[in-house]
Design brief:
The protein is α/β, with parallel strands linked by helices. The protein is 44% helix and 17% strand. It has one domain: Dehydroquinase, class II (Rossmann fold, 3-Layer(aba) Sandwich).
């Protein structure tokens, strides 16, 4: 069973009441419930966490190695400021999808740059809470394809050379 870690950054604990015109009406517990439910449908174990503390996100990312197959992260404002989070993602080398509820590229200029995008498998922005579900599907597909490719290579390596020719 695939295991995915979903991390939410600062101020996301205020979803549902924080700028609903930008971030929507859904609360973080409702979003987490939908992620977990969809993960279950896909046969994926999902753990969700939220913090307002940058160092805590870094620690969770570092601790994910060996315990999770991939990470979905909404670093929120740390997207635009945190080299530490970027470096942690690069260091653990787990496939990571960056998610944003709003389209950061349509917002203020300072939100257009992401330190995370360069080390992420991909970025999903602007689809509200559905973005997390899209990330879950994309990461599951990526990990499934990678797993299939590994099995295929292993199967080929076990085949006698005379048969492979």
């Amino acid at each position: 069973m695939l295991r995915l870690l979903v991390l939410h950054g600062p101020n996301l604990n205020l979803l549902g009441t924080r700028e609903p015109s930008v971030y929507g009406q859904m609360s973080l517990p409702e979003i987490d419930k939908s992620i977990t439910r969809r993960g279950g449908e896909l046969g994926i174990a999902v753990q969700t966490k939220q913090t307002n503390i940058e160092g805590e996100l870094v620690t969770w990312i570092q601790n994910a190695r060996g315990h999770f197959d991939g990470i979905i992260i909404n670093p929120a404002a740390y997207t635009h400021t945190s080299i530490a989070i970027r470096d942690a993602i690069a260091a653990v080398a787990l496939p990571t999808v960056e998610v944003h509820l709003s389209n950061i590229h349509q917002r203020e200029e300072f939100r257009h740059h992401s330190y995370i995008a360069g080390v992420a498998l991909g970025q999903i922005a602007g689809f509200g809470p559905t973005g997390y579900l899209l990330a879950l599907e994309a990461l599951a597909a990526h990990l499934g394809a990678r797993s299939t490719a590994s099995r295929t290579r292993a199967d080929v390596s076990k085949t006698p050379a005379a048969v492979r020719r």
